[in-house]
Amino acid sequence: MKSTLFAAWVLVWVTGCASSRTATGPSAREALSAEEVVRRVRAQARTPHQAFVLEADLSLRSPAFTGSVRAHIVHRRQDSLFVSLTATALRIEAGRLLATRDSFFLYDRVQRRLVYGHWIQASELIPDLFAVTDAFASLLGLITPAADGSWTLDQAGPEVVITSDDADERYLIDPARWRVLMRERRAPDGEILESVRYADYQVADGVSYPGRLIFQQPSAGIVLAATYRSLTMDPQRLEFELDAPLGIPWITVEQLMPPGRQ
């Protein structure tokens, strides 16, 4: 039943993406092993770039915030990430996020407070998509299956699907580009822990990247839809200024949690 539901989801997503596909490549029915598919996806995802500035429109539903914002995202690979969020309706900057590999600082301009903590606690407020260790690949659609994993290869129309032997990860792959269109991560009982979908791939500074993505963390109540407006790779200047005023209260994640979740 789970496989049937996944196949239906794949077909809906593929149908929605098909009109924007322009690249050509080998047929998905070419006789390939799962290991060869993984190798090609990983080879296509390699890039020498180390930083980017991304402008995007975000629609977010989470326990901490629901609404639409314009995002200015600055990221240095495996090092730090800065996000400025502007409320679309009011056209005012609502907040700023500065994240490192192990910590985060969220300046809430509306409530005039700074929320901080270890990144492990950030899932209460921030989608895992923005984790510094994974953001470069996650935001640019460069995620890949593990090279040392054990995978099973299946078909889904013109696309291919590879599933880990323990069924905890599943990837939908476009063989025209050897890029991931969708990834699911599941718990042992089959519950979806996280999913991300990519569409409308385009090129900037020699990098093929998605124009749209949808990210979900059902257990955390998080759904994020992003439409990219522009991407600049390796800009000459990167700014990570949180610029929070002196005197505002600093609040831990635990202080924001309702009783019983601390």
Number of strands: 16
Structural class: mainly beta
Q: How big is the Rg? A: 19 Å
Task: Summarize the biggest pleated sheet.
Answer: 14 strands, mixed
Q: How much of the sequence is in beta strands?
A: 35-45%
How far apart lie the N and C ends? 37 Å
Return residue spans where pLDDT drops below 50 for at least 5 consecutive residues: 1-25
Helix proportion: 10-25%
Order of helices and strands: HHEEEEEEHEEEEEEEEEEH
Give, in spatial order, the strands making up the sheet with the most strands: 7-8-9-10-11-14-15-1-2-3-4-5-6-16
* SS element count, helices: 4
Calculate the mean pLDDT score and round it. Answer: 85
Shape verdict: globular
